[in-house]
Write a structure and sequence with these properties.
By secondary structure, this protein is of the alpha+beta class. The protein contains 7 helices and 7 strands, in the order αββαααβββαββαα.
């Protein structure tokens, strides 16, 4: 990003890129990093040289393989893509990020670089996990009720049937999910 002509544009561009409320980066066609903005350096606690040398070190170890598959798929297709991964912060904590990448091609159509943005989605992911946990807890409670309970949407689509309702009707949860359970189907009373 340095320039020999002394123009302000590269400095203004660098300030702009560093000011983006996300991690901005670019990489060579083979995926080797060639630029990361200051926010990524501050988040990781690593210098530019460290990030360029071992940038995978900030990936959660459980997701390195998924990342490699995703990256290989991007390289093979040359098309934009996204993935959600956890990245290590300077203090060792991991946060969820949506990584978005796009390819840059020259006039002949040759891939010359990748550019991307990593957006922090940790609050959303934690809210989704909490919602799933609450749904699981609710289903556990509903399954403990000794009466048939069926949850329907306003249009009559079955969302859930508790264990008693399944036992009474003889349906499986997959049949319920396939909408085999309808509001008109009688449930014997005991």
């Amino acid at each position: 990003m340095n320039t020999n002509d002394g123009s302000r544009a590269p400095l203004e561009l660098r300030s702009f890129i560093d000011g983006i409320p996300a991690f901005a980066w670019s990489a060579r066609p083979d995926g080797f990093p060639e630029f990361v903005n200051q926010r990524l350096q501050d988040y990781s606690g690593l210098s530019t040289d460290q990030l360029y040398g071992d940038w995978k070190s900030i990936l959660h170890r459980d997701e390195v393989e998924d990342f490699e598959k995703w990256r290989q798929g991007l390289q093979n297709s040359g098309k934009p893509g996204q993935i959600e991964l956890r990245l290590r912060r300077f203090d060792g904590e991991y946060r969820w990020f949506q990584i978005s990448a796009a390819s840059i091609h020259d006039e002949q159509g040759n891939l010359v670089r990748w550019c991307g943005v990593n957006t922090d989605i940790d609050d959303r992911k934690r809210a989704e996990q909490k919602l799933r946990k609450n749904e699981e807890d609710l289903r556990t409670i509903i399954d403990a009720i000794r009466q048939a309970v069926v949850v329907l949407t306003p249009d009559g689509t079955t969302l859930y049937a508790n264990r008693v309702a399944l036992d009474i009707t003889g349906l499986t949860m997959s049949e319920v999910n396939d909408n085999s359970f309808s509001p008109g189907r009688s449930i014997p009373t005991t």
